[in-house]
Batch of 2 targets.
Target 1
Amino acid sequence: MSLFDFFLKSEVDPRDLKDKTLKVNKTRCPQNHRCPSVRACPVGALTQDKYEAPKIDLKKCVKCGKCLRVCPTGAISFQ
Ligand code: SF4
């Protein structure tokens, strides 16, 4: 099992997040790589143009928390 798969195995309980919104902190994102969180999202809620910070489609997001676990800089969080 890869480290990537290991991190994806643990999920956040969506009931703990019902009043929170997923946000991308652009100042924490170096915007110099392909975002691993885009690949981690099981519903395609994250997209990325070139190496820019990812964008979130909040209508698609199911608040699983998988994207948070693979972002190396902690640029994605629930607030
Ligand atoms: S919380 Fe889950 S569904 Fe929402 S953007 Fe992150 S990986 Fe996708």
Note: The longest strand covers residues 22-24.
Target 2
Amino acid sequence: MKILITGSAGFIGFHLTKSLISSKNTIIALDNLNNYYSVKLKKDRLKQIGFNKKISKNKLLKSSISQNLYFIKCDLKNDITYKILKKFKFNIIIHLAAQAGVQYSIKNPYSYVDNNIIATIKLFDFAKTVQCKKIIYASTSSVYGSNKNTPFNESDKTASPISTYASSKLMCENLSNVYNHLYNIKFVGLRFFTVYGPWGRPDMAIYKFIDQYFKNKTITVYEKGNMIRDFTYIDDIVNGINSTLLNFDKIQKHEKNPIINLGCNNPILLSKITNFLTKDLKLKLKIKYKKKLKGDVDSTLADISLASKYLNFHPKTKYQQGIKNLYEWYIKYYKIKI
Ligand SMILES: NC(=O)c1ccc[n+]([C@@H]2O[C@H](COP(=O)([O-])OP(=O)(O)OC[C@H]3O[C@@H](n4cnc5c(N)ncnc54)[C@H](O)[C@@H]3O)[C@@H](O)[C@H]2O)c1
């Protein structure tokens, strides 16, 4: 198969691309390497999968560790991207590129319109033009807004998002419906729940706590740590995406324009995470407590019965192990002597 992966220098895209290196598929990986967070971290991820040389815009690079892996630095908003991509006959697109982050979306809403809505329409339109009939795309638990029915089920109402990020991701879900209806493109939308792990995103809680500890900064914990998140380890998410790839046709036989939760189904209080960092990993965190931020939801918890039914999805990584892996990666990556 020829697979296009968007957002492959990002946290989830990198891990997914890495997991597919030894498969027989040809992978075209793409990212615009935006500076929402460290571009160096994104480039270092790419080095791990064989892109060590200078990365120039709109130029196809071949991986030094796999014959079947290519990378292009390009932007899904730009028409030139699609001129480059046109020559590949993709069997499937895995669309992970996005402007992520709930809080950033409150100050910078336009980036979400540009990178999540416009870029996604352009990509879906490209798929229509080149007759690529299969797309897996990333959505988020944030679409559930302040849903009080737990665990969150895919059939719960999502009409009341509370951040521009969530709203832009809901639009992607809506667009999949449109492109399915009008052009018979088949989609699977995956709603990820707070993903964490090595090579993670520096703007996310657990990474931020570890990072700020080593920078001797005070960490901010909201709502006295009483917020609940269904933290999901990166390897479990990657298994879920790969299983979606394998079972794509089977899912289509049973569901029209399916959307599937990928979460751990094991909700954790944020205070449990800070306790684990303090007591088990012996990081003496300096903590400052603040009121909940607007846009953040109180709790998330995934109902994963659909994922278990179609994808045999059974998250394995306990938070203690997952956090330890992230911590150990952090120490190694930043060459911290302890
Ligand atoms: N990490 C999580 O906890 C989480 C939770 C729910 C949903 N998601 C979704 O999963 C996907 C991947 O998230 P992530 O955590 O890896 O984020 P990330 O920011 O690490 O990765 C996204 C990548 O997309 C790239 N990108 C952004 N706009 C682009 C554009 N216009 N053209 C080309 N590339 C572009 C960025 O440079 C980045 O490397 C996103 O769609 C995100 O919304 C993530």
Note: The two ends are 45 Å apart (CA to CA).
